[in-house]
Design brief:
By secondary structure, the protein is an alpha+beta fold. It has 2 domains: 199 residues, no CATH class; 170 residues, no CATH class. Helix content is 55%, strand content 17%. The chain has 14 helices and 10 strands. α1 packs across α12 and α2 crosses α12. The chain is elongated and about 100 Å long. It is a multi-pass membrane protein. Keywords: Cell membrane, Membrane, Transmembrane, Transmembrane helix. It comes from Candidatus Iainarchaeum sp.
Length: 404
C-alpha cells in the first residue's frame, strides 16, 4: 500500500475505479448530482456569454454614428412620456446631425382571408422613408422598398407574411387594415439584429398613411439620429440634450448611443449570469452532499475490508487516499459529462433562438470555462469525500475486522 501514499498513483486510481464499478447504481446517482450542477453552470455561463457577444454585435451593426432619442428618463417613465411632434425637425437642425428620423407606431386591425388580428404598424414620414434602409432596419427580400410617392402601399415583415395568418401573404396582395385596403409592395428579409427584429411581424408604411388609419394623434415612438461624418458623438449628443431640454422645459427624454446601450445591456447580462450561475452552484453543492452520504454508507459497508487493509500494513493516509480518489473520480466523471451536456444544451438553445427569432446567436465554450468547471467538480467531489475518508481512516483495525 506504499504506492497509495501518492494520490495520483495509477494503482490507487485503479483501486478507486474498481470500487466505484462494484457499486454501479450508487456511483451513478452520485455522479448524476455532479452532472446536473456542472451542466447547469456550463449552460448558463455559455448562454450568457453568447447573449452578451450577440448583443454587442447587434449594437456594432447599428454603427458608431447612430443615436437613439427615446421618451422618458427610464423604462418606467417611457411608458407615460411622449416625444414631441417637431423633435425630429429640431434635432436635424442641430450642428453635427446628418439626419433625424422619427418613427411612429400604432396597433391596427388587419383582416386577411377569414382572419382578423392585431398588428403593429410602423410609420415614417414619406420624405424620410428611405432612412429605414440606411439605418439597417428594413431590407427588402421580395418586391420593392417604399418611396415618398407611395400611398395605400405597405411593406410587411417576413413573419407577418408567412406564419402569422393561416394563409401566406404574397406580394401584391391586399390587406384590409382598419377597414382600408392596403397593397403589399414589398416583403422584408428577416432581421439579423434585435432592433430590426421589431419589424419582422409588423407593417411598415408612410406616416401619412398611418396617421390616416389612426384615431388618435400620433407622437414619435423614437427618433433615430445619424451623426455627420467627422463629428464627435458625445459633443453632438450634448447639443441635442441641451436643445430638447430647453424646448421641453424639462428632461423627459433619454439619448443613447450603441456603445452606451451595449455597456448597459452587458452589465445586466453579467449580473443575471452571475445570479443564475450561483443558483446552479447550489445544485452542485447538493450533489456534493449526495456524494458524502454515499461514501459514508460505503464506509459502513466496507468496514471489514478497511480492517483487513490496516492489518496488512495500510496507513491511515492510505485509507484516506483511496476514499478521496473515489470522490475525485466521481467529481471528474460527473464534470466531464456535465461539460459535454452543457455544451450540447447551449448549442441547442442557440439553434432554437436562431430558428424561432431569426437572430444571430452563437455560443461557445471556452477552454478556460470548461477547465474551471471541471476543476470545481473535482474539488466538490474531494471535499465531499473528506469526512467519509477521515471516518474510514480512524476505524480500529481489530474492531473493523470483526464487522460483517
Amino acid at each position: 500500500m506504499s504506492n497509495a501514499l501518492n494520490f495520483f498513483d495509477l494503482e490507487l486510481l485503479t483501486v478507486a475505479f474498481n470500487n466505484l464499478k462494484s457499486q454501479k447504481l450508487r456511483s451513478a446517482l452520485s455522479i448524476l448530482g455532479i452532472v446536473i450542477g456542472i451542466t447547469a453552470i456550463i449552460t448558463l455561463i455559455s448562454l450568457g456569454e453568447g447573449l452578451n457577444a450577440s448583443v454587442q454585435q447587434q449594437f456594432d451593426e447599428l454603427g458608431t454614428n447612430t443615436l437613439t432619442v427615446l421618451p422618458g428618463g427610464g423604462f418606467a417613465e417611457s411608458l407615460f412620456s411622449e416625444l414631441e411632434e417637431d423633435d425630429a425637425d429640431t434635432i436635424e437642425n442641430i450642428r453635427g446631425v446628418e439626419s433625424a428620423t422619427a418613427i411612429y407606431l400604432n396597433t391596427v386591425r388587419v383582416e386577411f382571408g377569414e382572419e382578423t388580428k392585431s398588428v403593429i404598424v410602423y410609420g415614417v414620414k414619406a420624405n424620410k422613408i428611405g432612412n429605414l434602409s440606411d439605418l439597417g432596419f428594413v431590407r427588402i427580400e421580395e418586391g420593392r422598398d417604399l418611396v415618398p410617392q407611395d400611398s395605400h402601399n405597405i411593406v410587411i415583415g417576413p413573419r407577418l407574411a408567412d406564419g402569422f395568418f393561416e394563409n401566406e401573404i404574397l406580394l401584391r396582395e391586399n390587406l384590409k387594415v382598419n377597414d382600408e385596403k392596403l397593397r403589399v409592395v414589398g416583403i422584408m428579409e428577416s432581421a439579423r439584429h434585435f432592433f430590426g427584429a421589431i419589424f419582422n411581424s409588423a407593417i411598415v408604411t408612410t406616416f401619412e398613411d398611418l396617421d390616416r388609419l389612426s384615431d388618435d394623434d400620433l407622437t414619435p415612438f423614437r427618433v433615430m439620429v445619424q451623426v455627420a461624418p467627422g463629428q464627435d458623438m458625445d459633443d453632438v449628443k450634448e447639443r441635442i440634450e441641451a436643445r430638447l431640454e430647453k424646448d421641453h422645459d424639462k428632461k423627459d427624454f433619454q439619448i443613447t448611443s450603441p456603445q452606451q446601450a451595449a455597456e448597459a445591456a452587458g452589465s445586466i447580462i453579467s449580473i443575471l449570469q452571475l445570479v443564475l450561475a450561483g443558483i446552479a452552484a447550489i445544485s452542485l453543492i447538493v450533489g456534493g452532499v449526495v456524494i458524502m452520504n454515499t461514501m459514508i454508507m460505503a464506509v459502513a459497508e466496507r468496514t471489514h475490508e478497511i480492517g483487513v487493509l490496516k492489518a496488512i500494513g495500510a496507513t491511515n493516509y492510505s485509507i484516506q487516499a483511496i476514499f478521496l480518489a473515489e470522490a475525485a473520480l466521481i467529481g471528474l466523471i460527473g464534470g466531464v459529462i456535465g461539460v459535454i451536456l452543457g455544451a450540447l444544451l447551449s448549442q441547442g438553445a442557440s439553434f432554437a433562438v436562431e430558428a424561432s427569432l431569426g437572430l444571430s446567436f452563437q455560443v461557445s465554450i471556452s477552454p478556460t470555462i470548461a477547465g474551471i468547471a471541471l476543476g470545481f467538480s473535482i474539488v466538490v467531489g474531494v471535499l465531499s469525500g473528506l469526512i467519509p475518508a477521515i471516518i474510514a481512516s480512524r476505524l480500529d483495525p481489530i474492531e473493523a475486522m470483526r464487522h460483517h
